[in-house]
Hints:
179 residues, alpha+beta, four-stranded antiparallel β-sheet, three-stranded antiparallel β-sheet, 7 strands, elongated
Amino acid sequence: xxxxxxxxxxxxxxxxxxxxxxxxxxxxxxxxxxxxxxxxxxxxxxxxxxxxxxxxxxxxxxxxxxxxxxxxxxxxxxxxxxxxxxxxxxxxxxxxxxxxxxxxxxxxxxxxxxxxxxxxxxxxxxxxxxxxxxxxxxxxxxxxxxxxxxxxxxxxxxxxxxxxxxxxxxxxxxxxxxx
Length: 179
């Protein structure tokens, strides 16, 4: 990403590819189990007569589960591909969406705290969710399932310190007027 901040590093962050692959694997397992369940139900004597009279039932069943699988993988991939996070020296940017794009910007100086949450698998494969608290905006910024979350929490802190030195928050927050 081209930034307005010369000689500084901007971090483009995608959600973890490993997390995407684990979701696809889980989807595959669920579809196989569902397919086995449908096959066992259609083998019951009272159901078997109804469905097996139609010779195209096997082809329909195969096509249905293939379509279900393809649609599931497509949705997972599109959600993964269309979510992008950027950490710049001045702000956190979040881009989401295909047809209607949503861009969220968060001033890095307003960060009060940041924490990483990781599951056991996330710790093993070094991915997790970075939660940033911004009390000025009364919101939390969440960067879900990113690779190397500890690295980005350090980068955020460095950028925050530098941004606060350049322009403290007192210059941004309106001060009450003395009467």
